[in-house]
Amino acid sequence: MVIGLAACECIIYDASSLKEKRAVLKRILMRLKQKFNISVAEVDHQDVWQRTKIAVVAVSSAKISAEQELQNALKLIDSFPEIERTITDIEWL
């Protein structure tokens, strides 16, 4: 069993309140959960308007499958124009 964790720092430039930030994040997190076989959550910077840290976790019997799910999830995050992914760390357990 392989567990892959991708933690990515992101900037939401147009958010001028926590409500706007959460609306953007909710839409992104829901799309990720619907489209891929992963778990995802905001794990840091919950009280900051324009910053967030998103954790994406994939569990699989083979590393290649988990890595593909994580890479696809990161590509989807990058496809949203309102959010910019900056620092991404990937860990394997």
Features:
elongated, alpha+beta, Alpha-Beta Plaits, 2 helices, 93 residues, four-stranded antiparallel β-sheet
Low-confidence segments, ≥5 residues, pLDDT <50?
Answer: none
What is the string of helix and strand elements? EHEEHE
Strand arrangement within the widest β-sheet reads: 2-3-1-4
Provide the CATH topology. Answer: Alpha-Beta Plaits
Portion in helices: 25-40%
Number of helices: 2
Biggest sheet details = 4 strands, antiparallel
Organism: Bacillus methanolicus (strain MGA3 / ATCC 53907)
Pfam families: DUF503 (PF04456)
Protein name: YlxP-like protein
InterPro entries: DUF503, TT1725-like_sf
Describe, in plain words, how this protein is organized in 3D.
With 93 residues, this protein is of the alpha+beta class. The protein has a single domain, classed as 2-Layer Sandwich (Alpha-Beta Plaits), CATH 3.30.70. It is built from two helices and four strands, in the order βαββαβ. It has helices at 18-35, 63-79, and strands at 2-11, 39-44, 51-60, 84-92. A four-stranded antiparallel beta sheet has the order 2-3-1-4. The longest helix has 18 residues, at 18-35. It is elongated and about 40 Å long. The mean pLDDT is 95. It comes from Bacillus methanolicus (strain MGA3 / ATCC 53907). This is YlxP-like protein.
Element layout with pairings:
Blueprint lengths: L1 E10 L6 H18 L3 E6 L6 E10 L2 H17 L4 E9 L1
Antiparallel strand pairs: 1-3, 1-4, 2-3
